[in-house]
Amino acid sequence: MKTQYKKINKVVIAGGGTAGWMAAAAFAKLIGKNLEIVLVESDDIPTVGVGEATIPTLHIFHQLLGISEQEFMAATNATFKLGISFENWRDVKKDYLHSFGFLGQGCWAAGFQHFWLKGRERGIASDIGDYVPEHLGAREGKFAVLAGQDLNHAYHLDAGLYAKFLRKIAEKNHAKRVEGKIDKVNLNDKSGFIDSLTLASGQVVEGDLFIDCTGFKGLLIEEALHTGYDDWSHVLPCDSAIAVQTKTVGRPVPYTRAIAHDAGWQWRIPLQNRTGNGFVFCSKYMSDDEAKKTLLANIEGERLNEPRVIKFKTGQRRKHWVKNCVAMGLSSGFIEPLESTGIHLFQRAIVRLLLMFPSQGIKQSDIDEYNVQTKEEAEHIRDFIILHYNLTERKDTPFWRHCSSMEVPESLKHRMTLFKDSGQVFKKADELFGETSWIQVMMGQGLMPEQYHPIVDMMGDDELRDFLNNIKSGVKRKVQNWPDSNDFIKHYCPSS
Ligand code: FAD
């Protein structure tokens, strides 16, 4: 394919929230030597100020950037996270945990769930979480980083402090920050590519490649380039959130809480010093005032700020890369934070662009490939989130009746049917959520397979009992030796 555009010598990042500073730190540190990197942000336009629960893939990003876990945790008041507790989702007072661990080993033909299903049928298997160290650790509030034990964990972090932490890395690696409000995006008359940004001060910031991290509005990708938006609210109807911070009461738990209410769900994200609380809800079924009351009635501890309403439309930009502009962060789309996938998607976008970095000039084939990969990745996550809403036994409010009866994408329907029919789940290459995640959530939401794989019958009941008990006692022994997660943090990051 012919080169469509000039060499990339200068990258301009518009916006300095989590997405902007993640991009600036990564580009500056990893390919910044031969590039000029400029980040423009306005002190007068606040960041969205939420986004504090992560998933284990953040390790990959930190490893790439050479970030020390202790240093990062101390700088962001972070705590460890081993999973998400889904409360009242299957039905009122029916809870389960989606942990980050992997289910105990099965065999070449059948995953562990098949052995567990037969064990359950025979009355010799206990809660599926008993076979996963991360699950038991979360339930017991324990954590450890031990040589030779690969504990799959993520963090709860302070988003504002995280952006500051990344800014230091970016600036140390010679990224430049320009403060000012972007007033105009200047397009080239002939090509339609972005030539420059004009700031309110009159300053003009020119660039070769522009990364739009300006938040929901998508100043470059949408307001200037009119990319269009795929609206997913027919399958993910929540469109509002209220967020408020409180002082942490008691000892922070090593998991995020996602507590379902009448027309949405509440998050509780405990940091070392404070707790992030929020309520994601559907304005068709609940007013802002009612949502505020629901949230305030369900928080603990002294309030540290006034509740703030955030409106959103779930979906994705039709294209994430258009001409010489790539959207990252909220400007590229939004999937509600039920499985804490926002920061993960930013990081994937950054790594994808780095992998395909068009230093010799932008080609349409790069753009097309980038957009296909990004779309598929987001649709996979969308399906996983819909699963939580659709696969519910709740019928107690109009919202839950709507969710349980709504039409869902064929791709998701197929996964649910396959699991119900045969207990099988398959992860395709590049999908974020693996077999263990689908199994934990599908069973947690009440979907039990109708059969297990016949290879399990090669084991007699006694053999199966020993097999299950060995895994369970191994998990118990392991977790027994872990300290309380908060004691561990104090020891691990003494400056926290
Ligand atoms: P923003 O924080 O909005 O930053 C936009 C930046 O652009 C700011 O620096 C602003 O100054 C700048 N800007 C805008 N306009 C201009 C202009 N004209 N001139 C100059 N600068 C400009 N993700 C997770 O991974 N985990 C979570 O738990 C999670 N929870 C979330 C909860 C809610 C309710 C929402 C809405 C999102 C959540 N996310 C979560 C998603 C995401 O991680 C956060 O929203 C994240 O903070 C978004 O960052 P951003 O950089 O895209 O946007």
UniProtKB/TrEMBL annotation:
One of its GO terms (molecular function) is nucleotide binding. Pfam families: Trp_halogenase (PF04820). L-tryptophan binds at E339. The active site is at K81. InterPro entries: FAD/NAD-bd_sf, Flavin-dep_Halogenase_NPB, Flavin_halogenase, Trp_halogen. The keyword Zinc does not apply. SUPFAM superfamilies: FAD/NAD(P)-binding domain. It comes from the Bacteria. FAD binds at G16, G17, T18, A19, L330, I343. 7-chloro-L-tryptophan binds at K81. Keywords: FAD, Flavoprotein, Nucleotide-binding. PANTHER family: FAD-BINDING PROTEIN (PTHR43747), FLAVIN-DEPENDENT TRYPTOPHAN HALOGENASE (PTHR43747:SF4). This is Tryptophan halogenase. It comes from Paraglaciecola psychrophila 170.
